[in-house]
Amino acid sequence: MVILSALADEISPDLKTQLDVLESEGIRHIELRGIWNKNILELNHNELTTVKNRIYGRNFRISSIATPIGKIGITEDFERHLMLFKRAIHVAKCFDTPYIRIFSFFIPPGENPEDHRDEVLKRVRILEEKAREAGVVLLHENEKEIYGDTGKRCHDLLSFCPSPHLRAVFDPANFVQCGVQPFCEAYPLLKDDIECIHIKDALFEGGKVVPAGQGDGEVEDLLRAITSRGYRGFLSLEPHLSTTGKFDGFSGPELFRVAARELKKLLKKTSIEWY
């Protein structure tokens, strides 16, 4: 049995609307990224308390904190970024989740990612050490144009820093948009490191994002493979069916419902139980 979650700011910036739509689709976990047009790390103490009370009051729970940690250029100031990471740890503990999503730094356009490998690995090692000290788990997502945007470089990063405090978010659509076959190429390298899966699909031609099962993300094959291995973690909807930005995406209530229902069709087809 898998657990459905969602980046609820894909639905609306309004918290009540997010919860209403998730409840209507039977989804009770949230990958917390944005509320009221603010990133979750930007909310003050009173706002965090309000959000937590409303979420818990309606019997929702947080699957992870979807931070922008690591979504800076590899040549940008890292020390300042560590202050934001400290905030991310605080927010994760506030919402009773061990999971913090991170990235492995944007590579300057036109430059070879391998030329920045040492600096990337040094920074990720520092983040892992601080996560270990705090008792949280970092989930590295394979985002476009960062160091870890291919299966091979994700594997390199996770192999360099083997730790229960550094695991993988597997995003099929992001692999497709980098010209990588998610299941055939990336999954064999990362299958032992996957802690969460983003449900997002895309087409190789043009990189357009589409509902799960309608693109080249090999989502059905992926679902069959992970459940055969006993996966019991989160499938987190991040549809991006309306707009895609550098730091977030948007679908709106109706397109989010389309994405949720297409995922449920795949789960039914593959005989995978969910809650």
Automatic annotation (TrEMBL):
Looking at the record, the residues that make up the Xylose isomerase-like TIM barrel domain are 20-243
Looking up InterPro entries in the UniProt record yields: IolE/XylAMocC-like (IPR050312), Xyl_isomerase-like_sf (IPR036237), Xyl_isomerase-like_TIM-brl (IPR013022)
Which keywords accompany this UniProt record?
A: Isomerase
Q: Which residues cross the membrane?
A: none
Task: Please list the GO terms describing molecular function.
Answer: isomerase activity
Alphabetical list of PANTHER family matching this protein: BLR5974 PROTEIN, HYDROXYPYRUVATE ISOMERASE
According to UniProt, the name of this protein is Xylose isomerase
